[in-house]
């Protein structure tokens, strides 16, 4: 073959390594979805979560944002459910249904954003402490342990009080206080992967630390990260509800936690205004339960031993 001839391509009917990798990923996704569909509780959780996500995204179409302003409240104080206000009104005359729909945006936004921060911090610190050796790994591991033994709620309360009540404060507080568990999980998985034969061959062939982490270790720990993410979102939403209930949420935005805080402040329980307490509490329970069920289903997909049981 002369120098000007083109390099021979793959034989007809044969896939290139890149095409083969893409096909294997597609097959893995299809197998995972097939297992997920057979998991009834996980599928039910996905349906419930999808309903809340649609409500949050379609909030401008489903509820008028002006009705959330106290000066433009269309109803009376603590009106019970009726044909006009399906879930009644709060102590300012605002429709509970509109608050629930718009509150879903804040609660889901806080839960997802804080989880991203927690997952990034936990994954990076876990990878570093598991892969590195010597004093850097020891320092990262001890730092994670020290952070893990700190009381979570008091630490979150102190940070929220110092930084001031706002939506960004809640997100940061939840994100920076919920990463240690993920870091320890990723660290243990990294220590296991680091001892496998394929990583030793990579080192012998001259792969540097960065390439070993990015091309070999990270893809093997990412399924664990995804499974842990769904459970962390549930914890983040509960934490946002708790902080907002304690008066540390953003007072200018409506969330399910601030609704519960307002209901507690006016004594809705003793006043018999059940419609002010049960709907936001039920929404929190359903969303947290749906994320938990999805997480359990994903864990079963990633661990074949659970499917065998």
Characterise this structure.
There is one protein chain. By secondary structure, the chain is mainly α. It has a single domain, classed as Orthogonal Bundle (MetI-like fold). The protein is 72% helix and 0% strand. The chain is built from 14 helices and no strands. It has helices spanning 17-38, 40-57, 59-62, 96-131, 135-149, 152-163, 167-177, 180-194, 197-204, 209-245, 256-265, 268-271, 278-302, 304-308. Helix 8 runs antiparallel to helix 10 and helix 11 (256-265) runs antiparallel to helix 13 (278-302). 33% of the residues are buried. The model has no long low-confidence stretch (mean pLDDT 82).
Low-confidence stretches are: none
**Percent of residues in β-strands:** under 5%
Biggest sheet details: none
Our count of helices gives 14
- What is the approximate shape? elongated
The CATH architecture assignment turns out to be Orthogonal Bundle
Rg, please? 25 Å
Helix-strand pattern: HHHHHHHHHHHHHH
N-C termini distance:
59 Å
Give me the CATH superfamily: MetI-like
CATH class: Mainly Alpha
Oligomer: single chain
Question: What is the count of structural domains?
Answer: 1
Number of E-type strands: 0
Main structural class: mainly alpha
Helix content: over 70%
What CATH calls the topology is MetI-like fold
Average predicted confidence as pLDDT = 82
